[in-house]
Amino acid sequence: MNVSAIAKAAMAMWSKQLAGELGKYGIRVNCLQPGLIDTENIRPYFPGDERRKYAESEIPLQDFGEVQDRQTWLFSWFRHVLNI
């Protein structure tokens, strides 16, 4: 069982619930759910050509995210306009 998928689903539902409760006060709630990030933990699940095949069939941008992509976003100016 993929625990991270369960956690992402719980966060999405919690965010929807909060948005419903806090929206009437003008408070916005955002929930960002990154896709697969290419790390040492993920690589054993996609040996050889499986990574490319999975990305082409299941990921809209057809590639795994990179660690530096996540870091770039976190430290960008855009994070100041979102409630995370």
Please outline the helices and strands.
Elements: H1 3-22, H2 50-58, H3 67-74
Tell me about this structure.
It is built from 3 helices and no strands. The chain is mainly alpha-helical and 84 residues long. The mean pLDDT is 78.
Question: Helix content range of the residues, please?
Answer: 40-55%
Shape: elongated
Evaluate the radius of gyration: 16 Å
The average pLDDT score comes to 78
Strand proportion, as a percent range, falls in: under 5%
Count of helices? 3
Question: Regions with pLDDT < 50 over 5+ consecutive residues?
Answer: none
Give a short account of the largest sheet.
none
- The computed structural class is mainly alpha
Give keywords.
84 residues
Task: Give a quick summary of the entry.
Helices cover 44% and strands 0% of the residues. The chain is built from 3 helices and no strands.
